[in-house]
Write a structure and sequence with these properties.
Chain lengths: ~300, ~425, ~425, ~300
């Protein structure tokens, strides 16, 4: 392994990963990290939607590469992945998609391990990572890959300069937490609550506890699962998060567009506008935290 | 301490059990060579760790007498031991001794209860308050619902909406036993989606809930735990074979879907190197696949699948070149799964298990043959093992044990529909049944 | 011969088996007090005499090891011994120990195989080449078809045309096992007519053919012979009760149609005078009868019937004042018969057996209760025994054995239809099943 | 028991029963014994049909009292019994019917034991026999009553002067035959072949053997089961029978009338004409036997 992964008690602000762009995204102020399933509901519209996120202020964009058995997703994102698959999305098309995007934010690919593992004749994660790097992807999130099984992928990411983001659940403590945090880079995905993805509008106690538990690890903490409004984002960042990850609330807009047969432009506009709201919320939260006397 | 010296002197003769590494495989780390593991969302890891701990304490170390209670309930509620029956007419037909391990006689009509009862009881020992399970054809769901009623545990079963419509009698049986049946509308509404959905439920409810997985699949410790619960099949069969015939069988044959009856039938024989083990998969209509449509018209993941990760484990899978899981197909819905237990994948790679595929036609013929000649109507899953016997008996040794994993009452409609499409010698006159029962 | 003196001295302690007159009753002359006999056409008498002779030689005297082979096949093919299971939740509910004799686990799903296998095997020992049997709901027919396939005997089953249309899955099962199913169009096309028709076939084919009657009814030696084959139920249960609980049960409960599972459940306890025996009949919708239409909306022949002669025996019957046999009715087709075994009629008159009637409603509630609380879906016939338990448990002793004569898979459609008509607490939400499965 | 029942080696021609009329029917020449189900297809038509048998030359008439489970009957007679039951026939109506008949031939009631046993509150056969005697019935045939169970009925018949006819099958030999023949009176019903009733047109070897077996018993031997034509009747009587019993062939005519909606007169005429044919056939057979040198 060549990357310098998150270590407790490392100097705050030190580079925690391979991607300078991702590090930069978290460096100045809170990061807004939106997620969309690529190819939902089709290639062209999806491109417009992702670009709208960028215009709306995305600091990092998570691109979902659809897998047929997305065991970590709630019904909303599941539905998006099925739409994308039905519209013909494949790993190769995904990389083309990434290459063709006109966005500023660094891209992170979120997918399941089997697609990474199977990408080439030569099984193992390396070919996928190589291709991802070539397509301009700067990081990976793999929800079904536990730290224990991640070393081959970690190595490939280090070789090609990608970050490997891990998810930390409210129940992740002790040794397991160390094991994960010794392998994470770029940012850690803090799961706001137990369960799968899906938009909700309260802030969970579990989030605060998770952030407390992670305080000593030198890596940006992005909180996700269920964030749906600017206010919501504000409270989470005020609570100590370095960024917010938003998926289902955005996917809901895409789904609504499909259901009501809205124009690509109309949907893109709504995505951009919710993005702006979320980003501003996060910034308000950050400001509040800076003012608070006990902020670290 | 002079007494202990005396004891030590005697120990080598009696106290060292013959090492049976095959039985221990995977128990510690969930790895079977390259296969196995725990490929699950982080949120599930604590549950998996808690379960691993409970598995070690209760199942492996019989803490609080768990295994004693399990065996007693399997006997009293389940009907174990289950006979190993000589099949007189098949023995004559194939000119070798054919023995049937009669799991079709287990309460519920299939081997599934061995596992379901073990896991529901374990959940009780763990202090869980709720059981969830996935089901495809409904066999695992009905077994779990029975075990949950027996042990007074609230139970919810996830089942694809399409499967619900195809398997209404089993849905009704689950409800009769007091279980909720939750329709899964996501995706294509079949077993794969039901498993994913059950994992999602578990991810939100791990603290109170145990997920009773239905085969030797999923993340560690499921594959070893389910195998250990199902191993009672081969433990009994091995003893019964010695008792009845004076020796071990030359061959053991079992059908393989996820592989729980397969591993259950093989476990006690894995270390008996002279016993050949045959895992019979569903060859469906053909072993060719339609890459374009993402459909394999079979579910021969051991025979034709490639290594990959599905539902928490690395194993052999039916997948397209991108790694997307294929829709599998079989005349028997219980074999209709794109994956297989990681231990089987390992044993096949090692050459210890012989993977074979039997197509829909041969399975259906096996169904009719066993019904007509032995008075046992097998499940369509089980029928694949008898298709294998017909096609390959000349390659087998002189004493073959076939696991009759389940009975066919659940399959009467499917048997009518499929028999109608074909011209099968051993089938009865079907004219009055055309169009279903 | 001085040695023999020594032996004699020891004998009284060990060699004199306790006399069990109850077990011998009827074996010699087919008479149970006023009941029993051989009221058959003269053409059948030679067959009946030949059968009586074979019964004495093979069944009573184990000639050529008949009984040994029978027991071995019952074990290997049938799955005996069958457990006696403590029902934890019912025990709690009724505040006494409730034990279940799990005949539902016998191959085929009901106690019927004990008898069918015995008779088909006997036919083989007698050199017969062909088997015939009657069936109503199809349970005895399927058991006979299984036994005939197992023993490679050509088999024809007579079944009323109306029953054929109501019980198509069972018709299909018989055909799968290679039996012919002959529709009986005479009369009203139900069980009574099927029995008469089978007797007619037998009258023309006695030399080559054995008639496998389905319960402890018909002319001698059927009632004793079927009882002796079914007695394995109570022989096992008696031993298991002693082993598990240290003593005999206070009560034994079994449903009664023709009475084969009833007599099977009681036989070994008849001489244990402290064990109360309860025969639960189908009370149908009401115990009143419609003399005008010749219809009894129940089949409580022990409870309400009068002495008469039917199908070869004098026994208790449902008949009008002229002596015409009534059409009986029950929610469970297996109890739906206007007669009952002559030995039961006798034991009821003697006060040894307590006859009780449980109506359709209570039986259906029993069906749901057992399914939901114990994870066992009983046959609707069996469910009557659980209806009795609910209504009369306070009158019972502290340790009650209930015979679970069969499983309910065959009854799912009927359960849906009947549950739909009622409002039953323990039933699941039925909305998705209205209109059948 | 007061009657003198058939005994082997008793004097030929001695009275074998309680009914002088039945004895007389067999005394001069072969007896033609037709059977019909009473009440088939209804009371009035049935009356006309039975009277047609009488006109056609019946020496004894067997009247079937329908029982719901006629286990000894083939489909033809079964059908007749069901029709009669459906039209309301009961034991009491049956006796009325017998009382109202205008016939010369003595009447024998053929029915199943449960109807006899159940006739009155006081169970047992006596009340039925008493009532039958009052209605002018001179004998009974009870196909499901074996000799072993017949003593109470035998006694009642003797008390009221009825004959009790037993059926002897081709398989009835040795002790059983003796047991039956020691209880029979009037005539013995020789079952021509194994099986149940039903019209056939060959003569079975079993018949000849049965007649040989019965030769030493001093009781008229009437052969039944399957006789359908004059020629058939002739052969059977030539073979040694003292009478012929004909059921199904006659019932077939009734059934045909029902099916084709024929008039009562037309059916009655056909019954009368077949009766005549059968009777004449029997007489030809008798004549042939008298001429044959080895006839007994
Ligand atoms: C009778 C029977 N056999 C086999 C199977 C396949 O499962 P497994 O391979 O886990 O034994 C099933 C699954 O439902 C089944 O019902
Ligand atoms: C499950 C079950 N129980 C009971 C009966 C009643 O028969 P018997 O009274 O002869 O046991 C039947 C008959 O089909 C049956 O299927």
């Amino acid at each position: 392994m060549t990357g310098e992964h998150a270590k407790p008690d490392a100097d705050a602000g030190a580079e925690t990963g391979n991607s300078a762009a991702i590090a930069a995204a978290f460096a100045d102020g809170p990061a807004y990290v939106p997620y969309l399933a690529v190819g939902d509901p089709d290639y062209e519209a999806s491109k417009a939607y992702v670009e709208a996120l960028d215009r709306g202020g995305a600091d990092v964009i998570e691109l979902g590469l659809p897998f047929s058995e997305p065991i970590a997703e709630g019904p909303t994102i599941q539905g998006a992945l099925v739409r994308a698959l039905d519209a013909g999305m494949t790993p190769d098309r995904f990389f083309e998609f990434a290459e063709g995007l006109d966005v500023d934010a660094p891209l992170v690919c979120m997918t399941y391990y089997n697609l990474i593992y199977q990408y080439d004749e030569e099984t193992g994660p390396r070919p996928f990572v190589e291709r991802a790097a070539a397509a301009g992807i700067e990081g990976l999130v793999v929800p079904d890959l536990p730290a224990e099984e991640a070393d081959p992928l970690r190595e490939a990411c280090d070789e090609f300069g990608l970050d490997l983001v891990f998810i930390v659940a409210p129940t992740t403590v002790g040794e397991r937490l160390d094991r994960i945090m010794s392998r994470v880079s770029g940012y850690v995905y803090v799961q706001a609550r137990l369960g799968t993805t899906g938009a909700r509008d309260d802030v969970s106690d579990q989030t605060t506890e998770s952030l407390d538990r992670l305080a000593d690890y030198d890596v940006p903490k992005a909180v996700g699962f269920g964030i749906s409004s600017g206010e919501h984002a504000e409270r989470i960042v005020a609570g100590g998060a370095d960024g917010i990850i938003v998926g289902s609330a955005l996917v809901d807009i895409v789904a609504d567009g499909v259901e009501n047969d809205l124009s690509t432009e109309a949907v893109a506009e709504r995505l951009e506008s919710l993005s702006r709201e979320l980003k501003e919320g996060a910034e308000r939260g950050h400001a509040a935290r800076a003012e608070a006397p006990d902020a670290s | 301490m002079s007494e202990s010296d005396t004891r030590t002197a005697e120990e080598p003769d009696t106290a060292v059990p013959s090492r049976r590494p095959g039985r221990e495989r995977g128990r510690d780390d969930g790895k079977f060579g390259r296969y196995g593991g725990q490929y699950v969302p982080e949120a599930l890891m604590p549950a998996i760790e808690e379960l691993t701990d409970a598995y070690e304490r209760y199942v492996l170390n019989n803490e609080d007498g768990f295994m004693d209670e399990f065996r007693e309930r399997l006997a009293d509620f389940g009907g174990r031991p289950i006979p190993l029956q000589r099949a007189d007419r098949l023995s004559e037909r194939y000119d070798r001794e054919i023995y049937l391990k009669r799991e079709d006689l287990l309460h519920g009509g299939a081997h599934k209860l061995n596992n379901a009862l073990g896991q529901v009881l374990l959940a009780k020992y763990m202090g869980k308050e709720r059981i969830i399970a996935e089901t495809g054809a409904g066999q695992h769901g009905t077994a779990t619902a029975m075990a949950a009623a027996h042990l007074d545990m609230p139970c919810e079963i996830y089942m694809g909406e399409r499967d619900i419509n195809r398997q209404r009698p089993n849905v009704f049986r689950m409800k009769l036993n007091g279980s909720e049946v939750n329709p899964v509308t996501a995706g294509r509404g079949t077993l794969k989606e039901a498993i994913s959905e059950t994992m999602r439920d578990w991810a939100t409810t791990v603290e109170t809930t145990h997920y009773v997985i239905g085969s030797v699949v999923g993340p560690h410790p499921f594959p070893v735990m389910v195998r250990d619960f199902q191993a009672v099949i081969s433990e009994e069969a091995r003893e019964q074979s010695i008792e009845k015939t004076g020796g071990l069988p030359t061959d053991v044959v079992a059908c393989a879907g996820g592989g729980s009856n397969t591993m259950g039938s093989f476990a006690a024989f894995v270390d008996d190197e002279d016993v050949a083990l045959h895992a019979v998969e569903a060859g469906g209509s053909t072993l060719e696949v339609d890459e374009e449509a993402g459909v394999a018209p079979n579910s021969a993941s051991l025979y034709t699948g490639a290594e990959g990760v599905l539902h928490g484990a690395r194993t052999k899978l039916l997948q397209d070149s991108d790694g997307q899981i294929m829709e599998s197909h079989s005349i028997s819905s219980g074999l209709d799964y794109a994956g297989v237990g990681p231990e089987l994948a390992y044993l096949v790679d090692e050459g210890r298990v012989n993977p074979v595929a039997v197509d829909d036609d041969a399975a259906l013929e096996g169904f009719h043959r066993l019904s007509r000649t032995e008075g046992i109507i097998p499940a369509l899953e089980t029928a694949h093992a008898f298709g294998f016997l017909e096609e390959h008996h000349e390659e087998l040794g002189e004493r073959v044990v076939v696991n009759v994993s389940g009975r066919g009452d659940k399959d009467l409609d499917a048997a009518i529909e499929e028999t109608d499409k074909r011209d099968i010698d051993e089938a009865p006159d079907m004219s009055m049944f055309t169009g279903g029962i």
